[in-house]
Amino acid sequence: MFNHLSPTARTRPLRRVLTPIATGTALVALAMCSTAQAQVTPAMERLARQLETQTPIKDAKGEPPKSETDTSAPSYLLPAQIAVLQKILASAKPLVAVPVRATLASVQSAWAAFRDGSGNDSLGHLDTTLAALGNAQASLVEAIALANDNTDARLRGVQQQLSLTSQRIARDVNGHARAAGVSEARLDPADLQLAAADAAVGRGDHVGAAGSFALGLSLSANTLVFDIARFEANIHSAFDSKSVGHSYAISFGGQPHSSGKNGQARTAADAPATAQSPTKEMHVASVSKSITAILVMKLLADKGLSAETAVAPYLPSDWTRGAGVELLTFKSFMTHRSGIEQNGVQGSDYASLRAVIAKPVGSTGFQYNNANYGMLRVLAAGLLGIDPVNYAEFDAGSLTAAAFIIEAQTLYSGIGVSVDCGPADGKPTIQYRFPDTGNSGYAEPPRGLTCGGYGWHISAREITSVMANLRYSTNLVPTPYFTEMKADYLGFMNPAQYGSFANGKFGVYFGHGGDWSHGNGGLDSCYLMFPIVVEAAVLVNSNGGSYGPSGGHQCTALKESFDNAWVPK
Questions:
Q1: Contact 456, 291 (CB under 8 A)
Q2: DSSP state, 286?
Q3: pLDDT digit string, tens, across residues 430-442
């Protein structure tokens, strides 16, 4: 077994989500390192010695399928207009700068409301979004009147884009209400307001349009209610009979709500046959990136640093740095914009990471690569003050991996969650092909030496606990650091690359998918944090299935399960 926590720590019952994290002597009793320690602890040493007996396993290529950027989506339009307004403000005359600054503040408020979602199970955050866009339109009228005799094309362009954003939000909800079965009679008042808004845009009255879009949205949203029982039923419909085995969990309002399973974690071909369970851990592939990102953000918070911090001081001191490495930040790696993809990355093991850092940085455009998060494993050790150069008695890769794993276990055990970079279950979950061939599947090996972008083992119920703690408490990271994660999609799928998962009818759906394939088995995983107080995770220990109404990716199926749980009020 690959078990690094004490039996007590691993078997403690799941605590309520908002229980404060263990501190002081409780953490010392776990014999694990903290960010205040720069020495190798006994637990770290034991794990490092275990890892020294392993051979790094090269990456299995796995990436959630990208989709085209939806340039009409609010998650694209709102950040784009913020960037435009910031550029206008930088060169605006003092008199014009006042209303432009007010416009910018209103658009930023609209984006925050749309991105952060509701504090309950209503769509109130969309009302807040459109109200803020109405304020922005009013400020824009003043700015245009003061700018260059009413001919500032850039400000007029912002006007148009903000109206398109209001229109998209209002019509998405109105269209969903109609598709959900709300009667035409109930939607007539909303339809009239939306038609009036469109007409107002046509005649250039963007302020009037904003008010009508907001009212049309409110009237449409008031016909819908979220049915969490329907959500759970939709998940069953999407995944049952589509996999060898799967489990799911749902949290609501920061607390565990429900969970379920179907099929086998192990078939008779890999005796003993074992049923799936929402409490049974399994490898979660690229969902690991979120687990890693949270840990790194916690370590940055402990030092008062941000994701914009340069990584160079936290790399092993004997690593050669290629041209441009000094400019890379933690954000560069968390957003797959480090430029290492073009440098022939061979894997996420220590030697491969060291070799790629010695090369000049390539293009820093988005290039998905597990090695970005493998690098965060080494950087986490650096943030903890562990420079392997100072510990010649240890293998450097084993030592940095041990520091990373132990620190993660310290963090997550504080909320009653066990994580490991290998199976810690006496009857570990096996991965299969779907449909089941009746043959033995793929047994996931320990991946401690390459863990980070993949490799974490955790259960569906524990994933929702992690995300609820992240969202509703400061047990994992301080609130400003969670805000930074959302703003820059640190550890989350960015709608620019994964719009089919992250762009939702009701806001931004933060989460990550995992796709893992081997000759005799694979897995599909996904979790999403929805714009209302709901989180859900689905773990499938087979691949090759087609899920949900669209018959596609597991994240799409989870998203559709949520969207189709909004029913007539």
A1: yes
A2: G
A3: 999 999 999 999 9
